[in-house]
Amino acid sequence: MEKQNKSITFGIIALVLAIFSVSLPKFYITIPIILGLIFSFIGILKDGKKWAAIIALFILVLFGAMDLMDQSKTAEAKEKTYQITYKVSGASFDVGYNNATGGMDHEKGRNYWEKKVTLKGTDFAYITGQNTEGSKRVTVNIYIDEVLIKTATSSGEYSIADANCYPYKQ
Known about the structure:
By secondary structure, this protein is of the alpha+beta class. The protein folds into two domains: about 10-80, no CATH class; about 80-170, MmpS1-5, C-terminal soluble domain (Immunoglobulin-like), CATH 2.60.40.2880. About 35% of the residues lie in helices and about 40% in strands. Strands 1, 2, 3, 4, 5 and 6 form a six-stranded antiparallel beta sheet that branches. A hairpin with a 5-residue loop joins strand 1 and strand 2.
């Protein structure tokens, strides 16, 4: 009489790797997913009880596909261009902002100031406003495609408010 294989060792290893890969940051998941897939296939071929290997395979394929789709969307968002609107309000202030070529421009403003620039998703959007008069308040805003994304306010003599973001991450 031949002894039946009731082991689920490879399936359990694959399942642990699958759960581990789901909990890791995106940058670190490639190796656990590949190892999990290998152990899943070995578990399906060698283990007597295949349930753990099949569940692990399902999780790894699903999570891997979701990650690939997310990477594709992120790459697309990085290449897209965005209409950035910088706005500053206050009594009297100096403004610094990232322009469309990646450099910093500086201007002076009173009461209200606005500037529109077009940036790629990986360009850094940055605005700073510094009070130049007494202990008034200055507020800076970053709008991406007409939607308010970042805002900051500062009060006090020569105080500075700044806001920043990468457009593709919003």
